Amino acid sequence: MINKLKLATFALFVGVTATAQEVEFEQYTLDNGLDVILHQDNSAPVVTTAVMYDVGGKDRINNKTGFAHFFEHLLFEGTENIGQGDWFKMVSSNGGSNNANTSNDRTYYYEIFPSNNLELGLWMESERMLHPVIKQSGVDTQNEVVKEEKRMRYDNAAYGNWINEISSNLFEKHPYKDPNVGYMEDLDAATLEEFKQYFDIYYKPNNATLVVAGDIDIAKTKKMIQDYFGPIPAGEEVTRNFPKEEPITETIEATAYDSNIQIPAIMLGYRTPGMTERDAYVLDMVSSVLSDGKSSRLYKKLVDDQKQALQVAALNIGQKDYGQYVVLALPLGETPLDTLVTEIDEEILKLQTELISQREYEKLQNKFENRFVNSNSSVAGIASSLATYQMLYGNTDLINEEIDIYRSITREEIRDVAKKYLNPNQRVELEYLPKKDSE
């Protein structure tokens, strides 16, 4: 289908006028189930080719963790027609750049090329999907790469494991309880056959979305997509049946230790609805009220006025099945962690019982209007958004229409949603402490 909507022009509350061009795109599906989205922008000779796979950290094989993140690395090893170690050389020698990333819910690969290399980008992604070389030498190489990444980003980084500690306490049954990077013992124990099985299950055209965005000719691009991706056979339909979590009804008190820090932290974690639910959008606004910028409530109170915290943040972490809402603070000086909890709860209680002011509401709307305008400011960003909205939200039109959801959120909803989810008996209270030599 072809989506063509009007030019959106936003008069911002502060008196500045921002204009966001409607993102036009064409969407269709190949016979093998591959979803395709095309966005034409001929303003610069650049094109992004991207494939998002519906597989993430929550997807296991034989109950082993970490496979999706591992494949983020493994699928750069090479293919039947791209030699081992040649992928990045091929991209850079043709004036391009590329990368990949994995979340609990999806894996995303992309290349950015001069537009005269569009065909190369499509061929490379079709090679990744159809002809990857999965052999023991590549698995062994990437196993060491993943272990080193884990050491650098998590084990040896200050506060590196905080989200994993929160998740492991918020979830008892759902695979969100385990780190996206997985447990190294699972990857060490995995067989080559299991890696091949994992690829055969998840890395198929009917479990993927291809986005081509930038300086393209639509008809020629469709022809190339059909040539390179059309012959790839579909896989079996992926079915999931993850266990449901029981509601949290009593405060969960937890402690974690980090040998990389000297300053402790307090973290309050709440299990919230999945990212497609309206309440998840409202929680985005709750986060902004509490900690977005120096004039936000928690920052102004704890950092500026009372000088009890070095830093404070309220984060709404969107995921497909369940969200995670986390408020965290680092104390200043000898401020006790329980004092920070008391002060944070006081501000949350105000949100739960009083409407934010009209001025605060207008400022909030202004921020989200600006975010919307900026989110579609690059072709690469548009490509990522198109894939995300199609795969995780099931509605590609949100690239143009999501701002309408935020616009429609009322002050009353902000109060009611804060009251619904952000209560002490519904949370994890995690003390994240420096690890002493004796511990």
TrEMBL record:
Source species, domain of life: Bacteria
Pfam name, any one: Peptidase_M16_C
Record domain Peptidase M16 C-terminal: where: 190-367
KW Zinc (keyword) present: yes
Domain Peptidase M16 N-terminal span(s) in chain numbering: 36-175
Residues in the signal sequence: 1-20
Alphabetical keyword list: Hydrolase, Metalloprotease, Protease, Signal, Zinc
PANTHER family noted in UniProt: NARDILYSIN, PROTEIN YHJJ
Family: Belongs to the peptidase M16 family.
UniProt protein name: M16 family metallopeptidase
